[in-house]
Fold this protein.
Amino acid sequence: MTLIKQYRFPITTIFAMVVIFLINKEIGIKAIKITGHSLKEMLLIVPPIFIFLGLLDVWVPKETMMKYMGEKSGVKGVVLSFLLGSVAAGPLYGAFPIAAVFMKKGVKFRNILIFIGAWSTTKIPMFLFELSALGAKFAITRLFIDIPGIIIISHVLCFLTNESGVKKIYENAELI
């Protein structure tokens, strides 16, 4: 029974896809193809991220992470968070396991939010694509708007999240 409870979402999804397939085969086949494509993409992206996480966890001591990205890291923590998020590869869901490892290593909550914001909006490959496809004026303007925007959003989120909420987030990261 606990196995069914644990996997209720995938079971419900498979059941819904079977129902869709029985009602309309064309839409059912399309849904199966989209699901297969998404699963394939995840299987290609998630293992390298977890290898990176294992290396990060073993190779980088907690003290080093706290020194460069912890509570007393100041501007260097913000800059490092931006750099790590900007050079990252892969979809946004890849940032969250890394953020969990950062939490275990004592990285400041604001720097984690900046890292996730940078991962989602300031990636170097995306910037290079925008330069070539949309022009330098657009790409540079968007980047100069996004950077302060990420910092402002991280400050607002830190202000809105009380200390006990942040503590609970860090405790949940330890369970992963």
Notes: The mean pLDDT is 90. The chain has two domains: 1-46, 60-174. Residues 1-46 form one domain. The radius of gyration is 20 Å.
